[in-house]
């Protein structure tokens, strides 16, 4: 099977985009190595700092961020980067073409308990007349992504990628190469599996509460079938399961903290995952509108997310129908 560079080149992918993806792969191979040895090299655990989101940073969050930042900003094709761990975008080459947005280590609270985590990335083109140090250059709808993907650090290190022609999966081999293991990942349209943090149930909107109540009622309720639940507390891992065998994942709007109506970030979590899911035949929504059509207003913007198997997301959207007009504005999603 081809490695990622061979596959992209054989499909006449933009050579600069192919080079960029190769560089991301090389960097993530290094991060995989550091994760494997983290307990031995003393880089597990939290730092005293918090990031701009007010969240505790793990040492490996910062290490992964620094690795990606350094590797990408070295490339002449990179105009700038934006990261969950950086307050502001960082400018690269003023002549560069690409803006790369990333969550260097999604699910990092899993690291200390040796559960899967991942790097999520999104690639945009810098608009004419702007540079990669300006936030406004990055504020483009998810539909404009040139590529999106993640590297999952699990039992295997796996790259899942779209450049707009389906979704491919690759596995890291012993020679440091990502070898293709699936050329067209497809999300089954129906499912009996859902992923949501049930501990937040009382904070959700009534529509989400009643939809999930239907899942829990199973064969005793209107849905007439039993559902199973999975929650890994790393979006990257939950989405990987969905891309592999179907299901739905949601981190919905909630009213725990009015300043944070959604937990996930649009630009480097919601958008890249939504692009992958749509390219694999699934749907991605805020419950009030398509995520990929949202016009972002800031780099660290939060968003309500529900994505996965098409028919099940349609049931979820149906449950929100009455709320569409009024709540979409109220929830700012
Ligand atoms: P961390 O990267 O801070 O661990 O957050 C991961 C995440 O943003 C997302 O990947 C998970 O789906 C979600 O948080 C888990 O949130 P809960 O803490 O509510 O389970």
Give a description of the structure.
The structure is a single chain. The chain has 333 residues and is of the alpha+beta class. The chain folds into two domains: 179 residues, 2-Layer Sandwich (Fructose-1,6-Bisphosphatase, Chain A, domain 1), CATH 3.30.540.10; 138 residues, 3-Layer(aba) Sandwich (D-Maltodextrin-Binding Protein, domain 2). 32% of the residues lie in helices and 23% in strands. It contains ten helices and 17 strands. The strands form four sheets. The protein has an eight-stranded mixed beta sheet, sandwiched between helices. Strands 12-11-13-17-15 form a five-stranded mixed beta sheet, sandwiched between helices. A hairpin with a 5-residue loop joins strand 9 and strand 10. The protein is globular. The mean pLDDT is 94. 1,6-di-O-phosphono-alpha-D-fructofuranose binds next to loops.
Give a quick rundown of the structure:
The protein is of the alpha+beta class and 333 residues long.
What labels would you give this structure?
333 residues; alpha+beta; Fructose-1,6-Bisphosphatase, Chain A, domain 1; D-Maltodextrin-Binding Protein, domain 2; 2 domains; eight-stranded mixed beta sheet; five-stranded mixed beta sheet; 10 helices; 17 strands; 32% helix; 23% strand; globular; binds 1,6-di-O-phosphono-alpha-D-fructofuranose
């Amino acid at each position: 099977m081809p490695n990622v560079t061979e596959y992209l080149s054989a499909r006449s992918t933009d050579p600069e985009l192919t080079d960029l993806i190769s560089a991301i792969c090389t960097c993530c191979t290094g991060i995989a190595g550091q994760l494997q040895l983290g307990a031995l090299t003393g880089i597990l655990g939290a730092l005293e700092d918090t990031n701009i989101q007010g969240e505790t940073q793990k040492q490996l969050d910062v290490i992964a961020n620094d690795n990606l930042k350094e590797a990408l900003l070295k490339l002449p094709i990179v105009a700038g980067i934006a990261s969950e761990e950086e307050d502001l975008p960082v400018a690269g080459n003023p002549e560069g073409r690409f803006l790369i947005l990333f969550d260097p280590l999604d699910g990092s609270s899993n690291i200390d308990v040796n559960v899967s985590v991942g790097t999520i990335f999104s690639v945009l083109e810098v608009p004419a007349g702007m540079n990669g140090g300006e936030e406004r250059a990055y504020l483009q709808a998810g539909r404009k992504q040139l590529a999106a993907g993640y590297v999952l650090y699990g039992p295997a290190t796996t790259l899942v990628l779209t450049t707009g022609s389906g979704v491919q999966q690759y596995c890291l081999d012993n020679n440091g190469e990502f070898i293709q293991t699936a050329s067209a990942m497809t999300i089954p349209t129906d499912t009996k599996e859902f992923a949501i943090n049930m501990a937040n149930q009382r904070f959700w909107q009534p529509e989400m509460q009643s939809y999930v109540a239907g899942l829990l009622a199973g064969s005793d309720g209107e849905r007439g079938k039993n559902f199973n639940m999975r929650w890994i507390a790393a979006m990257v891992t939950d989405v990987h399961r969905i891309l592999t065998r179907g299901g739905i994942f949601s981190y919905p709007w909630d009213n725990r903290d009015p300043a944070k109506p959604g937990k996930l970030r649009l630009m480097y979590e919601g958008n890249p995952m939504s692009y992958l899911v749509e390219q694999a035949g699934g749907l991605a929504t805020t419950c009030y509108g398509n995520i990929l059509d949202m016009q972002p207003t800031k780099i660290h913007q939060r968003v309500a997310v529900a994505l996965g198997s098409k028919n099940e997301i349609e049931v979820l959207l149906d449950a929100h129908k009455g709320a569409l007009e009024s709540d979409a504005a109220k929830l700012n999603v």
